[in-house]
Amino acid sequence: MYESFYRFIQKLSPEFKIDINILESLLKSKEVRKGEFLFHKGDICEFVAFTYKGCLRSFVVKHDKEYTLFFHTENQTFGDYESFQKNKPACFSTQAIEDSEILIFNHQTMLLFEKTVGGQKLLRLVAEDLAFLLRDKLLSLLIDTPQERYLKLIETEPQILQRIPQYYLASYLGIEPESLSRLKRRVYKNQKS
């Protein structure tokens, strides 16, 4: 059932070996309906997760306006890791934007990973991936224009554009939905020229 997760692990760290039967006894699959929250800002995030299928988003609210930080599609990890590790309130919320299925990793599962040969390296590689993602997002917000961010999204994750509502895309790019319509027309016109 968890083939894509095992492929994810092997791609990230081929030397990591774990007893699949023990791991499967600890993994919890959870179906999440469109619009359902996994956790809200201020909650304690009691897990980290892997998107098996579907699409979720992490976001913050400032002055009653939502700002989408990330979209989590298939074969991606997510969660508020600091909240999970330090039992602190989460600093963002995560919500399903499609009917989704996720794999839940609780503290017991993480301990199993840590104790397994190559497990600490695997967890470090996952943490590094997340750190690079955060770095890229921060740099893009500081350096790139919304149009440049949109073009990067077209280049790196074109399939996601068909899956997410336009108002979430606008909040991800840091613009208003009306500005997104103009931006898309401009990009389309430039591509036709």
Description:
This is Crp/Fnr family transcriptional regulator. Pfam families: cNMP_binding. Residues 21-110 form the Cyclic nucleotide-binding domain. This protein is α+β, with helices and mostly antiparallel strands and 193 residues long. The protein has 8 helices and 8 strands, in the order ααββββββαββααααα. The chain has helices at 3-12, 20-26, 81-86, 107-115, 119-143, 146-156, 166-173, 177-192; strands spanning 28-32, 37-39, 48-53, 56-62, 65-72, 77-78, 93-96, 100-105. The chain has a 4-stranded antiparallel sheet with strand order 1-8-3-6. A 4-stranded antiparallel sheet has the order 2-7-4-5. Helix 4 packs across helix 5 (119-143). The model has no long low-confidence stretch (mean pLDDT 90).
